[in-house]
Amino acid sequence: MNNYPCELIEDLIPLYIEEDISSITKEIVEDHLKECESCNALVQEYSNNELNIEDLKEDLPQANTFKKWMKRLKVWGAVTSILFLLALIATGAFGYKIGEKSKNNLLTLKTVVKSFNAKGLALKENKSKLADDYILDGVKPAVYNIGETDDTLLIYIFKSFGEKKDILNKTDNFKDPFTLEERPFHAKNSLIVFMPSKMPESRDELKSIGQALNIISNVVFEDLNEGQERVHKGESESWEGTLTLRYYQHWFEEDGKLLYDSYYEKIPALQYKKYDIGNVGPITFKYEAGSSSGSSEGFTINDEGYVELGRSGGTGAILSEDAEVRFTVKWGDKEEHMVLKAQEVN
User: Fold this and answer.
1) Where are the strands (E) in the chain, listed by range?
2) What is the CA radius of gyration of the chain?
3) Low-confidence ranges of the chain (pLDDT < 70)
4) Bridge-based pairing state of the strands 228-235 and 239-254
5) What is the percentage of the chain residues whose pLDDT exceeds 70?
6) Distance CA 41, CA 39 (A)
7) What residues contact 163, with CB distance under 8 A and at least 6 apart?
8) What is the residue-wise DSSP string for 105-157?
9) Domain map (residue ranges) of the chain
10) For a surface tag, which of 53, 82, 86, 322 has the fewest beta carbons within 10 Å of its beta carbon?
């Protein structure tokens, strides 16, 4: 049986008999009647004219106005029931749409271009370069210049995340995430490739390209991939430890299958709490974060007591908020341990 209570259906039965309800509400009533003997008996009782609908109509103008409709509902005591029913229908419909969006929120070319423009990286369509030169298994990119430069941005929009995954698995193009000649960025069903007009020959040229790459990276992570950040903190007697987790994860429902796309970056850091910074020699660092762990040595402390520990990233499962994160720090003949906990986001 459907989830609507008999009390609600009973209030709707007179309107159902008079055929003064919407097709959706009618369908709900009829689905209920298929399995409810009590409400079926009430329909029979009303239909046998033991309750004459015409006798209950108020002296209203015959025009089919909103006021007349509301008064009819009041006669039957159904205003609350109708609103309740519509609320249930609306909640279900919006819940479906929200769920659908969260699983299939694919990007469009317009969204990608708008996101870059909003962050000050103006894109201008470049018609001098043929998209056919960069085609990937039938998918052509949109070709743009970045600002007033001749640097190029290729934007591929695939029909689905699954299509993107299948096509990229077939090609050797854009596999290296560290090259400067063709730097790929991934965002849901899109592939964005940065190509400088020439390799930098000076520090200023390298700086300019670095700034562009930084903006592209931020737009892709924050806007297109809806990236999130979580900070875990803890301390020992001498140290304060921080693990910053930057990540995104998406679920896509395609052809009855649930596909998963994710990326994470772990950034550990240490801050020395005491004043004898000069006495802190080379540092050995170990960490455990969920199912992953690692260690390295030879780190040095700067004048502010801060230790840069590098970063690591990858795809797969994201470190959970309640995961146990442990740091071990060794320097000289000393060793301290700390447990880091996720901080609340303001």
Assistant:
1) 123-125, 142-146, 152-157, 183-187, 190-195, 228-235, 239-254, 257-272, 283-289, 292-299, 306-308, 312-314, 325-331, 334-342
2) 31
3) 1-4, 7, 20-22, 24, 45-104, 129, 345-346
4) antiparallel
5) 78
6) 5
7) 139, 189
8) ----HHHHHHHHHHTT--EEE--SS-GGGG-BTTBPPEEEEETTS--EEEEEE
9) 6-104, 109-224, 228-342
10) 322
Q: Round the average pLDDT of the chain to a whole number and report it.
A: 80
Q: Looking at domain 228-342, which CATH architecture does it have? A: Sandwich (2.60)
**Backbone φ and ψ of 180, nearest 5°:** -95, -20
Asked if 192 and 112 touch (Cβ cutoff 8 Å), the reply is: yes
- Tell me how far apart the alpha carbons of residues 273 and 271 are, in angstroms, rounded to a whole number: 6
For position 63, what pLDDT does the model report? 39
Q: pLDDT tens digits, residue range 261-292?
A: 899 999 999 999 999 998 898 999 999 988 78
User: What is residue 46's predicted lDDT score, i.e. its pLDDT?
Assistant: 65
User: Whole-model pTM?
Assistant: 0.65
User: How far, in Å, CA of 275 to CA of 294, rounded?
Assistant: 28
Contact (Cβ atoms closer than 8 angstroms) between residue 287 and residue 326: yes
Q: Cβ contacts of residue 259 below 8 Å, gap of 6+?
A: 161, 162, 165, 251, 252, 253
Establish whether domains 109-224 and 228-342 are of one fold. no
Dist. CA 180–CA 81, nearest whole Å: 64
Give pLDDT tens digits for 293-320: 888 999 999 999 999 898 888 888 899 9
